[in-house]
User: Fold this.
Amino acid sequence: MIRLVIHGLAAVCLTFSSLWIFADEGRKLPTIGGAIPVDPSTDAPYSGAFRDAMRQLGYVEGKNINIVLRFANGDPAKLRQIIKELVICEWTYLLEMLGY
Assistant:
């Protein structure tokens, strides 16, 4: 009888733990959206430093956070359009790196 109860409890625990694991897989990761006024090659040292700093803080891109950077290549009109798109996308966080 005790053996049956133990097996029953083990089955219940395994069922609920697997549901918890699958529910966790479907969660949406926080996303940082960035509007960058220059081209990717000019921004490479800065975006690389940003990603490195995020990793040092424990944020691993694709694992517990997403980072989406969009580049305007020096075009102010394109930068305004990118900012509008990022606001519409409802990212968790928005960055505007205008200090170049």
Q: What stands out?
A: The radius of gyration is 22 Å. Confidence is low (pLDDT under 50) at residues 1-24. The chain is about 55% helix and 15% strand. The beta strands are 31-36, 66-71, 93-96.
